[in-house]
Amino acid sequence: MSRMLEREAAAAPLLDIDAIASACAGRDPAALFGAIDRYLQPLLGHTLCTVNRFDAQRIAVVRLYSSDPRSYPPGGSKDKAGMPWGRHVLLERRVYVGEGEAAIRASFDDHAAIAALGLNSVINVPVVMGDACLGTLNLLMPAERVTPAMVAAARLGAMLAVPGFLGLRAD
Question: Which residue ranges in the chain fall short of pLDDT 70?
């Protein structure tokens, strides 16, 4: 295979960027978050994507988007004050990768619901603008292992989500 064909094959997932561009031009953050979810799905193989707004005064997150609204409805909230996950992701603005049942159990109160959905790994990415954490992009996969390429794709998704959070501020 020639180098040009190799580059084309590697860049193929990027070709579906039009839906995100269209959603960015709109005024509906949920539409943007949904487009990001669909964009990342072939790259990550996740079966649950949620986007949460960070309430810095309460050290809590409020769900804005869910690919599975029956199990994780928008509007749901979780307190994260005093929790290692909250410090790591929300306050220190670092990506969290949890691989396997033990990691998920140690980090999430709703680990039983996560396990019931057949999810075995998670990538939580802070959505950051300047020095502020606006929220998180959360991707949960059936696969137990997470690769560096998956983390990179998730980080890109979080960056693409920033306009959705800015749209929430404008309304």
Answer: 1, 4-5, 7-14, 81, 168-171
Residue in the block written with tokens 């949904």: 34
**Using CB atoms within 10 A of its CB, is residue 1 exposed (0-12), middle (13-18) or buried (19+)?**
exposed
The pLDDT tens digits of the residues spanning 83-131 come to 788 899 999 999 999 999 999 999 988 999 999 999 999 999 999 999 9
168: CB partners within 8 A, 6+ apart: 29, 53, 64
Dihedral pair phi/psi, residue 126, rounded to 5°? -70, 140
The span from the CA of 142 to the CA of 118, in Å, is: 6
Cα separation, 25 vs 119, in Å, equals 33
**Residue 139 contacts residue 123 (beta carbons within 8 Å):** yes
110-120 core/surface letters (b: 16 or more CB in 10 A; e: else): ebeebeeeebb
Q: What is the pTM of this model?
A: 0.90
